[in-house]
Amino acid sequence: MSHLVSPSLLSANFGNLEKDINLLNNSHADWFHIDVMDGVFVPNISFGFPILKFIKKLSKKPLDVHLMIVQPERYIKRFVDEGAEILTVHYEACNHLDRTLNEIKSYGAKAGVSINPHSSVNLLDDIVDIADLILIMSVNPGFGGQKFIPNSLKKIEQLKNLIIKRNSKALIEVDGGVDFSNARQLIDAGVDILVAGNTIFGSGNIVDSIEKLKSV
Ligand code: DX5
Ligand code: ZN
Predict the structure, then answer these.
(1) Residues 120, 163, 137, CA angle at the centre, nearest 5°?
(2) Domains of the chain by range and CATH?
(3) Catalytic residue positions?
(4) To bridge 192 with a disulfide, which of 105, 131, 171, 214 should be the other Cys (CB 3.0-4.6 Å)?
(5) Is the beta carbon of 11 within 6 A of some atom in ligand 1?
(6) Per-residue pLDDT tens for 105-160?
């Protein structure tokens, strides 16, 4: 499979969100990455259901929803009902991750697990078999436009090995500080999905930047 690109709408222009959504619809973007933040799990608040509903109505691509919220199990059904095709929760935010992933899958969505920069890939040992996707945070979550943490590359290689060892089908997604200078290296290390916010929306040409990330 060639790699996918999932633009993070956190960096989109919320003054004219419809325009950016249409640009993404007419680009080679594969998914829409939607960052939900609660101001508790991360030191920032992004947006909630009304915005998600609006994006769902206009988007022609799968919604890749990244929950940076505590106790995400409270909202699993709601997010799937609102249109999340891929729903990712944080390892650090779940007391019963196995149950939460199975619940996501029971509603027909793909279940993802994300780990923060301080969390070791080894923590995924007993969960990689049932996850559809693992999201490696390559910045401390909460904000767009941060610098890629170099140690993340090693984690992606470790995760790729773990997935092969376990014969897991989980896809590897990377999120934070992805740009034209590191994208190729990330894919070579095993990444299946590149998330990018600032690199796409801060570039002046959304469609071209997506094309560039698709063809690195
Ligand atoms: C950060 C979010 C990211 C963010 C990425 O907490 O999870 O998805 O929007 O933004 P960039 O690509 O600008 O680092
Ligand atoms: Zn994200």
Answers:
(1) 40
(2) 4-214 (3.20.20.70)
(3) 35, 175
(4) 171
(5) yes
(6) 999 999 999 999 999 999 999 999 999 999 999 999 999 999 999 999 999 999 99
